[in-house]
Specification:
Elements lengths: L1 H4 L2 H4 L3 H14 L4 H15 L10 H15 L11 H23 L10 H5 L4 E4 L6 H9 L4 E5 L5 H13 L2 E3 L11 E5 L8 H12 L3 E5 L13 E3 L2 E3 L1 H14 L2 E3 L10 E5 L2
Parallel strand pairs: 1-2, 1-4, 2-3, 4-5
Antiparallel strand pairs: 5-9, 6-7, 8-9
Helix pairs in contact: 3-9, 4-6, 6-8, 8-9, 10-11
Length: about 280
Amino acid sequence: MNAALSDSMFSKFNKAALQECLAFCQRFKMFDFSTVYSLALALIRHYRGDCTVSDALLPMLKLRQRWYISLCSNEPDYSIYDDDCYISDLWACWVVYSRKYLLAIQNAKALPEQRSIAERLGAVKKVVDLGCGFGYTSAVLKELFPSAEIFGTNLEGTAQYKIASELGNQRNFRVIPDSVQAGSSVDLIFASEFFEHIQDPIRLLIKIIKECQPRAFLVANAFGAQSVGHFDHYQHNGKRIANSQIGKLFNQTLRRWGYAPVKTKLWNNRPAYWSCAA
């Protein structure tokens, strides 16, 4: 474990939280650590632009094939979320994507007025982290907003839910299966690579707005990307929606419910910052 944690990809940010997660993983003996870690490193290189398809990536490619075959029969195979390969993907997405977005929130020059998004949010009392994985993002959000209640949503019955719950006990955040359990008057919804895993993301977005009444959203969607758990098309009001259209519909829905995009200086506008206009 010490050799793994010395890797610069893991040690630059929130090393303590990751160390706790890895300790939980090994203690519960939920998967073969060395195999999952090796695949995670290969996925990190792949997501960072290494287009070479190495043998190390083959297990993930097979899992992706299994997922899309299940979509062909209109029976999404949600068991993929408890597969060892998907655990590797959680790690890789944390390193390449979610960690970067959390750093961006703290960037002192993220906004045109030369202040951070965290500073603009002001007093934050409640945060919901949608699809929190192992709990990395929830743990850092607790560090970023120490006086706030932090809720991470996850799939009950999976290894990631159990590990995130254990980490939450250590780092003072709570893991819940449904955002409704967080209650209303939520200050911030954080969603990194989450809504593309939902077959009807607009319906869920509206449900979250109604139940949680969030003051702001920070979202990074990847509807057009093919990956394990991403849908090849989406549903809305009983209609089939193409990947190329769902992002536009998602933004239109936020506007219709009273949210406005806040201009940032973040690369590729990720995460996108939406604030309640009221």
